[in-house]
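Hi everyone,

Forwarding the result from last night's run.
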Amino acid sequence: MDEPMDYASAGVDIDLEGSAVASLIGALSRSVRPAGSPGAPVDLPGGFGGLIEFGENLLALATDGVGSKLSIATSLGQWGGVGIDCMAMNVNDLLCVGAEPIAFVDYVAVPKPDPAVHAALGASLAEACKRARVTLAGGETASLPGIVTELDLSGTALGWLPKGEAITGENLKEGDVLIGLPASGIHSNGYSLVRKIVEHAGVEYTDPAPFDPEHPHRSLERWTEGEATFGEVVLNPTRIYCDPVVDLLNEARGDASFSIKDIHGICHITGGGLSNLLRLHETLGWAITSPLPVLPEFQWLQRAGGVETREMYRTFNMGMGMVLAVESRQATNMLNWLKERMPGTAVVGTVTNDGHKVTHATEGVEFSHY
């Protein structure tokens, strides 16, 4: 291979996307809803979910889609996990502001309606609602021949939290402990690069996985018997972190030994990989000194695509789907509480005060901008 593969060469330039989003935000005007009224915006660093006022509480909103993972699902005729992916990409963002997700609406765009496909999507969304503990409050299906060429799925999630208890990152400080929650797989980011690597390697999604897919802290959701196929690994649904994070938030707001004020930041590791941590604070840094184990599919993708290590951590979650930054004095209590409910959870590092950057135990993995 002459040149190592990266996300930009696969058609997705994260830096360019960031500039485009900044331009979009810069062109938007402030809300017409006056401060103190329902629907008035609440300033929130990080941008994982939007907050608005609603009486004695705050409402949180997030919107996202499944992305090009859908192309693989469509090629295999396997849509059982994509509703879970769509839900996860939304509700996991709401958790980052301290909100409990309560409702979801979906948007399906197709070139032509197919009752069998829609039935599979409905079953997948029903399972997603169970895992996220939310109500499916409605949705929209659009037939768009000539505009879309294959199925697209996105959605919006609604959550709530008591006023004054948002997790904004403003309480982050040097010495806070980082607790990592394991991922179930690739989740729903980086699939343009995944598809390019797979095409280059000449692997079929129906082939047995070209690596040992077993990992102690995740299970594959299978649709075949015998050896796990590559497609089953690649399409393994995104982990929904409502269980245990919502329970942790409720425990912290109750009579636990730790309080909601001890949870200083929550980060969903999605597009942009570990650089997402930089969104939570303008000056502090993040040192990942004891990373969670890398899932085997990431190791194979890096070898097969000749992808540089830094690019892997910039594009994928690499086995860690969410990070909590917590008060150091309560870190052990919260870690033990989480480990009982999600095996594989571990302390992965600390918040630092030596520059606005993410550093990693792996040499060459460092990020200074999102």
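Residues 177-367 form a domain with the Phosphoribosyl-aminoimidazole Synthetase; Chain A, domain 2 fold (CATH 3.90.650.10).

Cheers,
N.
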